[in-house]
Amino acid sequence: MKNPVIILTIAGSDCSGGAGIQADIKTISALGGYAASVITAITAQNTMGVQGVLPVTPEMVITQIDSVMTDLSVDAVKIGMVNDPDIVRAIADGLRRHQPRLVVYDPVMVSTSGCRLMAEETVDIIKQELFPLSTLITPNLHEVSLLVDRPVKETSEMEKAAEELALKHHTGVLVKGGHLEGGEMCDVLFADGHLSRFSDAKIETRNLHGTGCTLSSAIATFLGKGETLESAVQSAKSYLTEAIRQGAGMEIGHGHGPVWHLHTLR
Question: CA nearest 176: which of 151, 143, 223?
């Protein structure tokens, strides 16, 4: 058997399995990759919410990164939720030392309900430390509004924000439009001076837990396989759309359930 692409995910653990490290590993595996992981926090959470968070020490985070990167030939890295400044610095140090070619960062700064999850100090450190090391960042509407310090609610505003952030931080930017009004969602990608739109009809379901984790780890996997950034985003969105469709009728938990990551294996 030919070696699969190796994707390293750096994120927190979701014990209910719908988001975080667990969603990333399912996604990477379903797409034919080999998933390695660095855990930044242990969370107690389920489809109803988060009940507790226990951060891993920065020293242990960097030790995990070194363990993986000195042994495995990592093709791409995906970074998920990180809200501790020292852990941000530890991850940045690890990336600078090992210099992975492809890094996808999902900057989880605001909850789905619009609640801010990150202190201003941490946001500033992330901008300084992680954005310049990233191939792509994938903020949603709440997060991109925080990053550009103004409301972003329409497609034209998404385009301006994506270009602004891309040029300022020297990275590709995918602004996710899942919270747009109406029956259609549109994501906007700005990279290498080029703007792309990706539109889909919304799927009516409350099972959307972990969609951001799933999309970003899918993009990292397709990039690791050699697709261009625009192609990787389109492939990842197609995978996620089908995962949402397949999971729309599932009843896992009593709240916002997960998507069905393993539809490719049926």
Answer: 143
Place of tokens 């001076």: 193
Cα 32 from Cα 171, distance rounded (Å): 26
> How far is the C-alpha of 154 from the C-alpha of 142, rounded, in Å?
12
- pLDDT confidence band for 98 (50 / 70 / 90): very high
Residue 237 and residue 183: Cα distance in Å, rounded?
Answer: 17
Angle between helices 120-129 and 85-98 (to 10 degrees): 10
Judged by DSSP in three states, 195 sits in strand
Q: What token pair was written down for 87?
A: 């852990």
Contact criterion met (CB below 8 Å) for 227 and 201? no
Radius of gyration, alpha carbons of the chain: 17
Model confidence pLDDT, tens digit, residues 185-227: 899 999 999 999 999 888 889 999 999 999 999 999 999 999 9
Kindly give the pairing relationship between strand 49-55 and strand 76-79. unpaired
Query: Does residue 114 have a pLDDT over 90?
Result: no
How far the first Cα of the chain sits from its last, in Å, is 21
Give which of 143, 108, 138, 126 is closest to 229, Cα–Cα: 138
Residue 214 CB-density burial (10 A; 0-12 exposed, 13-18 middle, 19+ buried): buried
